[in-house]
Amino acid sequence: MITVLSNCDIYTGSEVLSEHSIVLRDGIIESVTDTPPVGADEVVDLDRRSVAPGFIDIQVNGGGDVLLNDEPTEAGVHKIAAAHRKFGTTDILPTFITGPLDGMRKAAAAVDAARKTDPGVLGIHFEGPVISPKKLGVHAPDFVREADDAVFAAFTSASSEGKTIVTLAPELAPPGFIRRLKSHGVLVAAGHTNATGDDMKRGFAEGITLGTHVWNAMSPLTSREPGAVGALLADDGAWCDFVADGYHLDFTTLAVSLRSAAPRGFLVTDAMSPVGGTKGSYRLGDLEVTVVDGRCQTADGTLAGSALDLATAVRNLVQKIGVPKDEALRMASTYPAEFLGLGHERGRIAPGYPAHLAIFDNEIYVSAIYYNGQLIQTS
Q1: Is 318 exposed, middle or buried (0-12, 13-18, 19+ CB in 10 A)?
Q2: What domains, with CATH codes, occur in the chain?
Q3: Is 130 annotated as contributing to ligand binding?
Q4: Is 45 a known active-site residue?
Q5: What pTM did the predictor assign?
Q6: Which of 124, 180, 250, 306 is the most exposed place for a label (fewest CB within 10 A)?
Q7: 304 within 8 A of 286, measured Cβ to Cβ
Q8: Minimal CA–CA distance to 50: which of 269, 353, 273, 369?
Q9: Which pairing describes strands 62-63 and 66-67: parallel, antiparallel, or unpaired?
């Protein structure tokens, strides 16, 4: 079936094309043209709305009133993915935060099962349990563990056909542990860490390629000690992801960090269950978390993930920092695809790519997605 999305402005991931059309054949992009073909099976006039590659979020703890830790099932993964599609996020890595090893294995099995029917589930992200007790955030201290063989087995329990990210504190990983994970195809990130600059150098040498929610729950950059933050921003081989909700980071701090990290910086949400859901509060282990003015917080005011979606994160970059719209969109699609090693099939609008697309107005409010061969209205 040939479908034409016409009369739209297209952010391809490398350029911006005005008043062009996207030609799709059976859900695959066939061409981008200023002259739509005659004889298409379906022509959709987008009325000068914009189209960009579908957003990719590699840190999604929950959505649709579901947390992966609480519902590590195939159905739970599908609910989380569907909630984020409302906001233009077509591809996710459901994230299991520090918890029991059997929960990690169940989450991996659930993601593997969901991937068979949902091409937007790219794999799994394990955030913990090898994290610093000094940088827990709201992670449950009872489940923090050493980097041993049992943890390694849980980290590598998901199918190698999908992507696995492990966030850990590099100062707590014994020599060879990170390299061993990398040899099994795992992408290793530094996070919830009290690492020194020297600790980070050792981690980079073994295979760390990402900083998870940089600045949050990690040793800071100071005048005499770079900490994890300084080491990540300075290393040309490391990617950095950021939560652009105005609560995790002041927008001025974020602006400086993006300039330092460019073009290795991209967006994540660290989203919790309220995103795309109906409930304004949830439980995280023993903690009651409430959304107050868009901020997920415990009773003592501690941040507990976010209520952020990626469309809002992109909009914040444009409106609060002045990032050009095309670059902000790349931070939600092209760059995370490249980090994952999926730049050949995600994050661009180009011939041969699956048509995972976000459709939005000039203010980046998403009204529809094209996903899995279907145009889906989201608002």
Answers
A1: middle
A2: 2-52+348-377 (2.30.40.10), 54-340 (3.20.20.140)
A3: no
A4: no
A5: 0.98
A6: 250
A7: no
A8: 369
A9: antiparallel
